[in-house]
Design goal:
By secondary structure, the chain is α/β, with parallel strands linked by helices. The protein has one domain: 3-Layer(aba) Sandwich (Rossmann fold). Helices cover 27% and strands 7% of the residues. It contains four helices and three strands; from the N terminus they run H-H-E-H-E-E-H. The longest helix has 18 residues. 30% of the residues are buried.
Length: 168
């Protein structure tokens, strides 16, 4: 049987806990669940990873509270005409998801076993609460985004390490 090709070595995926979900599972995420385990984590775990991704990829980010109306109200000073929105967790980031839906912007979301996928255009099943998992995800996203934009050669790596994307 042919060996699967991974973007990073398999043991790095496993060590990050990217495959670990919560103790709750929704019908929407059932198809992605292999095994259920318990993990408890706070939402701020992804802030460093998101901010570093934004810095390296040149993408606007909001780590913390989403400013209401920036996608829907052109009278606001911070109004943004986004082409696509990505959220780390569709539940706490639901205002951004709903604003995106109102103006017809596609939404990508990282979804754990307890997420619903209403209003989402593309789901990335993963542990979206663990700091190592989010660090690995945004490391991979940054590397692949820069390759797709032609800012990084196919065999080239970004100057940052996976650990740089993880909260201390």
């Amino acid at each position: 049987m042919a060996e699967d090709k991974f973007l990073v070595p398999r043991d790095v995926y496993l060590k990050s806990g990217i495959h670990i979900g919560t103790k709750f599972r929704t019908a929407y995420m059932e198809q992605f669940i292999y095994k259920t385990r318990l993990i408890i984590c706070r939402r701020e775990n992804g802030w460093k990873a998101v901010e570093l991704f934004g810095k390296l990829a040149g993408v606007r980010t909001f780590a913390g509270r989403y400013p209401p109306g920036i996608l829907t109200n052109p009278n606001l000073e911070d109004y943004t005409e986004a082409k696509i929105v990505m959220v780390v967790d569709a539940w706490p980031d639901r205002n951004a998801v709903l604003d995106s839906v109102k103006v017809g912007i596609p939404v990508i979301a990282l979804c754990d076993t307890n997420n619903q996928t209403n209003f989402l255009d593309f789901v990335i099943p993963c542990n979206n609460k663990g700091k190592k998992s989010l660090g690995l995800l945004f490391y991979i996203l940054t590397k692949e985004f820069l390759k797709a934009k032609g800012k990084l050669k196919e065999d080239e790596d970004i100057p940052n390490k996976i650990e740089d994307f993880t909260e201390e």
